[in-house]
């Protein structure tokens, strides 16, 4: 078949060969009849090794198996395409009987390669499939950019949910979780407790040792809280030197025990300073168990009031909310 122009004729195989998109054509016997230059460059396999053979798989896979064009020649039975390209293919919206797929080829290039490939049937005048044409494009760069974007979105999502200094969840997340946990406690009639922890005399710590050392105390307290929380608990930085631990499935007695453990362990910590001095600090804790019908603001307010009560009792203690 020829195209004609003022300069003469161009054969179809020259057109294929000049196509910058890697292209393979096979006949009804699965024999390769075209393997263009772009395909040779992409796969590293010259056309001379492929034309007339049924070895097209060799350019892509370690073991013999059909490529997409082979499945098209075999009638493009969807279940068969699915066997080889599960979750990675869909029907072409442009050409009937054609498929598009995207897959990772670990042996391509230095670190593997993502290819987007399409295969369509070639039919005779009666509509019988007499071969298939497959095109392949390297979409690795696009994939890497998408992965980087996903990772950065995930990082931003994480940052928007956490407190930068301590790495604990932030107040916004606390309100979300609290609403959810109250709804759950209500629906299933389960206990739910919460504690508010407030660093004692923190202004004096800042004044005496400096703001950076104050930050160290907060970081240390956050680490201790994280070490003490159980699987279903979650911890939040609630304000400057205030923290919250949310305790699903926990009644007041257990919450008080946990609070007492955190208080005692924190009081025992000595943060060494350069001049052989050490910082020690204490916390006051208010514990509140959710009451049926109570909303999140009221629950937190009761725990806050218990913290004030603890401060009035001399600090470094735990008080159960009224
Ligand atoms: N280093 C540091 N200090 C903070 C941070 N956030 C808040 N603060 C300080 O925490 C101190 C809290 O002081 P107050 O609310 O007066 O409470 P307190 O000194 O702990 O006194 P009591 O609550 O009665 O024990 C303030 O001086 C704030 O500036 C922070 O992220 N880092």
Provide the fold topology.
Blueprint: E1 2-5, E2 8-11, H1 12-18, E3 22-27, E4 32-35, H2 37-43, H3 47-50, H4 68-73, H5 78-85, E5 89-91, E6 99-105, E7 113-123, E8 129-138, H6 140-161, H7 171-188, E9 192-199, H8 202-209, H9 211-228, E10 234-237, E11 242-248, H10 252-267, E12 271-272, E13 278-279, E14 283-289, H11 296-312, E15 318-320
Parallel strand pairs: 14-15
Antiparallel strand pairs: 1-2, 3-4, 3-8, 5-6, 6-7, 7-8, 9-11, 9-14, 10-11, 12-13
Bound molecules: guanosine-5'-triphosphate (GTP).
How would you portray this structure in words?
The protein is of the alpha+beta class and 322 residues long. The chain is 41% helix and 25% strand. It has helices spanning 12-18, 37-43, 47-50, 68-73, 78-85, 140-161, 171-188, 202-209, 211-228, 252-267, 296-312, and strands at 2-5, 8-11, 22-27, 32-35, 89-91, 99-105, 113-123, 129-138, 192-199, 234-237, 242-248, 271-272, 278-279, 283-289, 318-320. The chain has a six-stranded antiparallel sheet, with helices on both faces. Helix 8 (202-209) packs across helix 9. The longest helix is centred in the middle third of the chain and has 22 residues, at 140-161. It starts with a strand and ends with a strand. Guanosine-5'-triphosphate (GTP) is lined by residues 165, 198-204, 206, 211, 214-215, 218, 240-241, 311, 315. It catalyses: 2 GTP = 3',3'-c-di-GMP + 2 diphosphate.
């Amino acid at each position: 078949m020829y195209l004609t122009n003022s300069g003469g004729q161009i054969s179809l195989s020259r057109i294929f060969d000049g196509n910058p998109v890697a292209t393979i054509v096979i006949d009804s016997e699965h024999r390769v009849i075209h393997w263009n230059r772009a395909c040779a460059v992409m796969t590293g396999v010259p056309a001379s090794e492929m034309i007339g053979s049924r070895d097209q798989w060799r350019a892509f896979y370690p073991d013999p198996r059909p490529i997409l064009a082979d499945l098209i020649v075999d009638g493009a039975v969807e279940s068969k395409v699915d066997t080889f390209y599960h979750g990675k293919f869909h029907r072409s919206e442009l050409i009937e009987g054609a498929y598009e797929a995207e897959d990772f080829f670990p042996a391509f290039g230095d670190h593997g390669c993502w290819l987007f490939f399409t295969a369509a049937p070639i039919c005779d005048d009666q509509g019988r499939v007499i071969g298939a044409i497959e095109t392949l494009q390297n979409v690795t760069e696009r994939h890497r950019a998408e992965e980087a974007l996903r990772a950065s979105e995930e990082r931003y999502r994480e940052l928007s949910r956490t407190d930068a200094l301590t790495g604990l969840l932030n107040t916004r997340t606390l309100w979300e979780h609290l609403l959810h946990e109250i709804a759950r406690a209500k629906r299933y009639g389960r206990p739910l407790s919460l504690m508010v922890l407030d660093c004692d005399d923190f202004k004096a710590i800042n004044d005496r040792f400096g703001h950076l050392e104050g930050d160290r105390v907060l970081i240390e307290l956050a680490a201790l809280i994280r070490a003490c929380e159980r699987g279903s608990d979650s911890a939040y930085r609630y304000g400057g030197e205030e923290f919250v631990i949310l305790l699903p499935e926990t009644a007041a007695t257990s919450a008080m025990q946990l609070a007492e453990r955190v208080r005692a362990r924190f009081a025992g910590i000595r943060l060494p300073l350069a001049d052989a001095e050490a910082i020690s600090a204490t916390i006051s804790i208010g514990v509140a168990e959710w009451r049926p019908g109570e909303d999140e603001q009221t629950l937190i307010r009761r725990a806050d009031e218990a913290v004030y009560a603890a401060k009035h009792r001399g600090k470094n203690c735990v008080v159960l909310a009224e």
